[in-house]
């Protein structure tokens, strides 16, 4: 199974989701059975590390984002991933606008997995440090819900 987390610039929310979800997969011994990545809708931060505030907040919770680098959503992502998980409604609309005609990969709001089908993960970029902790709370909840669904589909294996 292959999961792609998508936000606006790929330096706050989506890399945080990638890091949190990877950590959960590793804790469950499933990291080798899934591909997890993140990207942004726009090109503003391509090649840059996650925002230092996102990294600091994640580190306090045992998640290392330092090795991640921003990239932009690409046409082949619609072929490479089984689901695209948007952080907000604008990201979801942008995914749909960029979707190739042949693609049938589902795109959903990430917080659906936390029981909030219409709620967005707010962008903490222009806010204070507290916003990054709030984002982590939401991402951790949705990641646990996603993990439950993934575990239901993955059979035990090597």
Automatic annotation (TrEMBL):
Hydrolase in keyword set:
yes
Instruction: Please give the InterPro entries that the UniProt record associates with this protein.
Output: LMW_PTPase (IPR050438), Ptyr_pPase (IPR023485), Ptyr_pPase_sf (IPR036196), Tyr_phospatase_low_mol_wt (IPR017867)
The domain of life is Bacteria
Active site (UniProt): 7 (nucleophile), 13 (nucleophile), 123 (proton donor)
Which parts pass through the membrane? none
Q: The Phosphotyrosine protein phosphatase I domain covers which part of the protein? A: 1-149
Protein name as it appears in the record: protein-tyrosine-phosphatase
